[in-house]
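check this:
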Amino acid sequence: MTGDNLNKLNLEIKRYAKVEKIPGGMLEDSRVLDGVMFNKDITHPKMRRFIKNPRVLLLDCPLEYKKGESMTNLEMMKDTDMTDALK
């Protein structure tokens, strides 16, 4: 690119880079990473703290089971119908 093109270049830097603040450490400990960084809290003492060559799956949906609403209708005509339905 020439000098004229550099002046016209308008990048949305927030689209391409993110600054993440992690408590602790000194300013000298800061680094610019080439690639992607994942930060996960350790929830169990036996969890690994470092994974070499991890495989990562990127999802654009929640990873949780959501139970659908039941569409069951019960018509109870006698007193014992509720007991029979719960069996």
Remarks:
- The radius of gyration is 28 Å.
